[in-house]
Amino acid sequence: MQQSQTQNPNDLSLDQARAEFLSLQTQLAAADQAYHQDDAPVLSDAAYDAAKQRYRALADAFPALQDEATQLEVIGAPVTSGFGKIQHAHRMLSLGNAFQDSDVSDFVRSICTYLGRPKSEPLAFTAEPKIDGLSLSLRYEKGRLIQAATRGDGSTGENVTENARTIADIPQQLVGAPAVLEVRGEVYMAHVDFAALNARHGERGGKIFANPRNAAAGSLRQLDAEITRARPLRFFAYSWGELSEPLAETQTAAIHRLKDLGFQTNPLTRLCASVTEMIAQYRMIEEQRATLGYDIDGVVYKVDDMALQERLGFRSTTPRWAIAHKFPAELAWTRLEGIDIQVGRTGALSPVARLAPVTVGGVVVSNATLHNEDYMAGLDSKGQVIRGGKDIRIGDWVQIYRAGDVIPKVADVDLAKRPEDAVEFVFPDLCPECGSAAVREEGDAARRCTGGVICPAQAIEKIKHFVSRKAFDIEGLGAKQLEMFYEDPDLAIRTPVDIYRLAERDAGQFCEA
Ligand code: IVH
């Protein structure tokens, strides 16, 4: 990367040091951009770390350079202000909540009363998942996307038009739409994309997002739209604001119209003819929750007939014609029985909580991630206090957060319940897999095994990555087989190259049992 990296900084003149420093700064910024935003690293971890170390060494030796150093350290940080404001043509409202089945019958009864309809006269409702993301209003004029705004306080939102344009689910141009059409819906992040984003950030000491909703919000609200582009955001359309002409006579038909115009609409939306059918759809969606691949936090019921929606109107902040039937929270408390260290592909040592099994949102959880040693100590990747600075010890009562199939995490600890014999965890400085030194470089969130491929854990994880769908996509060579073949004295797949030495063998051997 930089030729003079071997020269002692103290032997350089200030001018020489500045030249090298600024060059490193440019190269590191490009590497950060490639890694965090483009998902396409241009440097190996080792080369990146060496460059960063040299950069810091120069800044230490020449304090005059430190003022110029700040620019690099803030790259990738979320931006939370600085957007223009947009006044919504129609207010963006929230929804009233139902927590029990009886709240749903009350909601339907109150609507019948308001409309003066006898209970015997059937009233149709749509039932659809309540997406756990952030709402966005998209304004189209003559079919062209001209403005995108967050909800803000409901009356005024932030102008995130350029960011919204980077989201593949959001059409830029519509054919056959009303001349003025405000489409509203939810921006969200799928579980796989969330996990990949956090894994990348975890390895490079970037921000770890607490859940997909925070990740989606942090990604949409970036002043640099190119950062948003590199974050895999998605969008479901479920509502509208100002319209120059009605979309349809029913909610169902309006949603079909939005789908025909090119928006993603939720496939689990159903029309229900009674409270019994509404609750049945709620249960059906709840059962599918863990496998949907994105977070939902309830089911939204809406009166299907638009003329009736109009008659029902709004209370101060919520419509009378819709309600959110919320799922019970996916949080649970349990005892932390132990902490294991897993060694990943890049040598990062990851602490994993072994838990007394507990049901969280309908799934039994006995392991959860503790991210890294700072997280366990009550600090985030920037050294800021999280959880009120509470550290996590073996024996503690811990709160588990699980969302869909995202790896469960330890979110909180109850100090009032900390037993006297709770054990502080000492992070190992030797790799538990190969005994090599495990070193934490300055600025790195992870402590890493220095064993490279002599470390069996790193070697196996590297081969797993090599065969994975994202890399060489070698079918039938799964985790189980790779672990077996690594140990097998005859097959001995110890590096990706070894896979190609198996060419003469019967391919059938590799098929999953
Ligand atoms: S309808 C006038 N449908 O939930 C009502 N909202 O708690 C317009 N949300 O602000 C909203 N999924 O951000 C509606 N299928 C869905 C939704 C949904 C998620 C959000 C939306 C709203 C919040 C209210």
Give structural notes.
The protein is an alpha+beta fold and 513 residues long. It folds into four domains: 3-73, Helix Hairpins; 85-326, D-amino Acid Aminotransferase, Chain A, domain 1; 331-439, Nucleic acid-binding proteins (OB fold (Dihydrolipoamide Acetyltransferase, E2P)), CATH 2.40.50; 455-510, no CATH class. The chain is built from 15 helices and 18 strands. The strands form five sheets. Strands 2-11-10-3-9 form a five-stranded mixed beta sheet. Helix 1 (14-37) packs antiparallel against helix 2 (45-61) and helix 13 (456-467) packs across helix 14 (479-487). The protein starts with 13 loop residues before the first helix and ends in a 13-residue tail after the last helix. 34% of the residues are buried. The model is unreliable at 73-80 (pLDDT under 50). Bound molecules: 2-(butylsulfanyl)adenosine. 2-(butylsulfanyl)adenosine binds next to strand 3, strand 8 and strand 11.
Hetero ligands: 2-(butylsulfanyl)adenosine
Number of helices: 15
Number of strands: 18
Q: Tell me the radius of gyration.
A: 27 Å
Mean pLDDT: 87
CATH architecture of the largest domain: 2-Layer Sandwich
- The percent of residues in helical segments reads 25-40%
Main sheet strand line-up: 2-11-10-3-9
Supply the CATH class of the largest domain.
Answer: Alpha Beta
**Unreliable residue runs:** 73-80
Q: Main sheet, how many strands, which sense, barrel? A: 5 strands, mixed
Give the class from helix and strand content and strand pairing.
alpha+beta
Shape: globular
